[in-house]
Fold this sequence. Notes:
The structure holds 2 protein chains of 2 kinds.
Chain A: H1 2-21, H2 23-51, H3 67-90, H4 99-105, H5 112-126, H6 128-137, H7 143-148, H8 150-178, H9 185-213, H10 217-234, H11 242-248, H12 252-255, H13 259-280, H14 286-305, H15 309-318, H16 335-348, H17 351-356, H18 358-371, H19 376-389, H20 391-394, H21 396-403, H22 405-408, H23 415-443, H24 450-476, H25 483-500, H26 502-513, H27 518-546
Chain B: E1 2-11, E2 14-24, E3 29-33, H1 40-48, E4 55-60, E5 63-64, H2 69-74, E6 76-79, H3 91-101, H4 108-118, H5 134-147, E7 152-156, H6 164-179, E8 184-188, H7 192-198, E9 201-206, E10 209-214, H8 216-223, H9 235-243
Parallel strand pairs in B: 3-8, 3-9, 6-7, 7-8
Antiparallel strand pairs in B: 1-2, 1-4, 4-5, 9-10
Amino acid sequence: xNALVFLWHCRIGNAVRRGLRNPxxxxxxxxxxxxxxxxxVLFFLAERGAAGTAPVFSSNDLLMGRPxxxxxxxxxxxxxxxxxxxxxxxxxxxxxxxxxDIDFLFTAPLPRRFVLLWKMxxxxxxxxxxxxxxxxxxxxxxxxxVAVHWVLFLPGMIGAWLFLVMIANFTQLLLLRSTVTPDDTxxxxxxxRRWRYGLTACFTGMMVWVMVRGGSASDLVRRSxxxxxxxxxxxxxxxxxxxxxxxxxxxxxxxxxxxGDGWRFVGLLIFCGVSFIALFGRERDFYESSMEIAVRKAQxxxxxxxxxxxSVLSTMAKEGQLARGRSFPHFGGGARAILWKxxxxxxxxxxxxxxxxLIPAAFPALLGxxxxxxxxxxxxxxxxxxxxxxxxxxxxxLRDVVRRADLSKSLxxxxxxxLGAELLLPLLQLxxxxxxxxxxxxxxxxxxxxxxxxxxxxLPSLAALLFLVQAIFVLVYPNPTDPAQNAVSGVVSLGIxxxxxxxxxxxxxxxxxxxxxxxxxAVAITAVNLIGAxxxxxxxxxxxxxxxxxD
Amino acid sequence: xxxxxxxxxxYRTFTxxxxxxxxxxxxxxxGLLGPNGAGKTTTLRCIAGIIRPTSGRVLVGPxxxxxxxxxxxxxxxxxxxxPNPYETLTVREHLRFIALAYDTNEEFDxxxxxxxxxxxxxxxxxxxxxxxxxxxxxxxxxxCAFLHRARVFLFDEPLIGLDPRGARELRGSIVEAARKDxxxxxxxxxxxxxAQNLCDRILILRQGHLIAEGTVQxxxxxxxxxxxxxxxxxxxxxxxxxxxxxxxxxxx
Lengths: 551, 252
């Protein structure tokens, strides 16, 4: 056991030290930490200022008397964790032994139970984050209330944690049961994939149903509550399930503790214990199944982290997932050859992979359906967020270029042309996806005002700006296998992306206030965005010129 | 020291290993050869306790691997084909971790320094494993195997990725472990000249079956190279002859 503790201690310690030694990681990381601390202090000061020196908790103040909606949300989220856990266990998301573990832990004279417990302990610890995060986040604007009165929420948080641990144990068990072995990889994998797609389709169907039914969020909560209450009344055992017990423990801040709470804890503990015994009862079997899945997962994970599109595609090809695709006649040398190469490669991606991208694209329309058709600005907010987040997916192409820098940099093509050619196709894909997203908003009738047309006009230049700004960060933080560098580059690039939007937003607001027609406003914003995008491309080209593969 | 009896590994309809039986004595170096997919890595993984055989038994010293797994593993050292050491540990921390895992923390400093020097890792001792080249990682993995004074060594393609000096050091270490310390060594390799020079005996697998076993001369005889003029046949010629399913390469 000493060895496992030592391993843990060294890995965490080294990751922190490595981060602190690297100014590109340390400085933004410290700024971020300081920002979060300041935010917390402000929350607490505001709370004390509002309630005097001795804050008095009142359930009426908290959540404006909406405990029912809060409890229902908690229960839905806990049930959602079952759903996502199931999908994860049918995929490879729940496999967590890596290849180093297989080579060094599986061969070491350590009891298998210890090895499994060591890994599961890490997972149990990580589950405290959602257990704490869920009630705080979904208390809506009453973050400060929950943060200050966290002690009252503690039983609910512990209950949620026990529930999540139970689900983690059972999903891990299911994963080990369904793990592929070399002889039946294709068949079983195909079955697992079908189940996964089926479950995802169910979930998407539910969301679409919510969207089609429309109505406001309060209507939705009311309808769901009615449904839940009628179900509980007609089928009393639904109140006797662990998710109901865990959710009920969140009642304590509103109604105070009651006798049944103790039994709910006992029930959750028993279920948790049963799941623990069920998982650890299989300790003799898990090495082999873990190995099979870990090796495959490691290959895909490494490829994705490296942005190695080639490896991802070759893994897909091995598993028979890659389409035959098309071959186009080439249309010129130099940078055009790069564009031709990317175009041909894009046709090898199966249609279902492209379709998966439609799920996030459909979110603005779904969100509009849930939160009211009249409120287009919510959709606009989401579209912006989506525009900032989505380029990450398409930047994999650039990561692949960076990874093959030995080859790419030796090509007789100027940096600006090379980058432009490599980024053109993903930029087009991002733009088309954005248009599909806006089209869904229009079709669903969520928002059909002139701003939608303006958004459609602005989208290409907006995508170019955000995409090229984030491309700079791929070149400045080229090591995607370094988690610290990865996380910080994500945060910093998000901040800079938001900052890059300021000129266009300022111009837009000024022109809007001046009563300029929407079309003119869109053209003006496009022009500002294009100036920003050109500047970003120049900076990115300079970064690429200075980039050395050994970085 | 290592006895494998009727080892079978079956994956539903596919038999990866079929009734494999052999032994490796103390002080002996045995080569495990075979074409791709013959079952060499599966054999080593079964012996290392990573995967469980469908039937059969593995004895490491006096310990049955299936019944007395921990004690058997204490005597084993496995070097996989692809080096995958923990990237977020330093080289020295990695060695310390292995020493702790095998409960051989005594004399760690002396032993670790000796191995770091032998495998040319002394300058890298405080560097993170993640910053090492593939060859260096391979050397570290090998150093880990020699750290706890195992009695049975299992090497899966150990020379791939090593520079000439590293390869020579490893060959020297393998010979030293066998001849001086009396350990049993099983080496899976495609490098037939190395196998010919290094190994006392050779096992040849094909499609999960042990098709030939013995010294190089035994294999020559088996392949029909025995007698006048046949003693010069290289292991490569013998191997190709024995593993050729069409029989065209067989001089008989």
